[in-house]
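[step 3/7] inverse_fold.run input=structure_tokens len=38
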């Protein structure tokens, strides 16, 4: 059961990292579109 808990914690951690990457990419994408419009 400890192994399952560790797996869940690592999955949660990777989900948070993925969300941060996604948010960062979204911000970069918006800035890039803004640069293209100029």
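[step 3/7] decode complete -> sequence:
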């Amino acid at each position: 059961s400890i192994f399952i808990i560790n797996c869940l914690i690592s999955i949660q951690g990777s989900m948070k990292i993925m969300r941060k990457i996604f948010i960062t990419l979204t911000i970069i994408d918006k800035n890039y579109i803004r640069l293209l419009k100029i």
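[step 4/7] annotate
The radius of gyration is 17 Å.
The CA atoms of residues 5 and 26 lie 31 Å apart.
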